[in-house]
């Protein structure tokens, strides 16, 4: 008798766990499928929002981050965006994703006046909310790896940022890292759901005019 009860509880627990994981993943896919595109085909928007990733000790972007920045550069060169907002982690004076991102784009030839840094983009949710509330971005093309893009787009749309997305796949050749990143999204989707439903407040502050200035430059 006890064994049957435990078995039923285990089955119910497994079903609930499946729903908890699959539900957010289904939602993310449903709201992002029609908003992913390529550099060539994406509708032009005022701003590209590049989400941060690891930089090395010397300030150089990691391979994944360079790939994102290369996509942003292509968007700018193709006239798809008029400004680029790079949003990264600068949580301590010893680690600064944002300056590494700005420097990389400027070295590639994007005018410095067109590249704006957000130094408190500690995660995807923070970057999207801050782009909307601190920098006044209402329409953007989000740039990241393609496995991360659905969650980023779903987050933007949930907080009122009208976003399209262009994803990088050049780093897919490292299949082990790509698979790890893809599987990590299942858990990250749960965090996204919690952030959006709870309306978690990221690090905010006064309105910044950097994007406005870049669009006028």
UniProtKB/TrEMBL annotation:
The lineage of its organism: Bacteria, Bacillati, Actinomycetota, Actinomycetes, Propionibacteriales. InterPro entries: Cell_Envelope_Assoc (IPR051599), DUF218 (IPR003848). The chain crosses the membrane at residues 6-28. The keyword Transmembrane applies. The keyword Ion transport does not apply. Keywords: Membrane, Transmembrane, Transmembrane helix. Pfam families: DUF218. GO terms for cellular component: plasma membrane. Residues 47-163 form the DUF218 domain. This is DUF218 domain-containing protein.
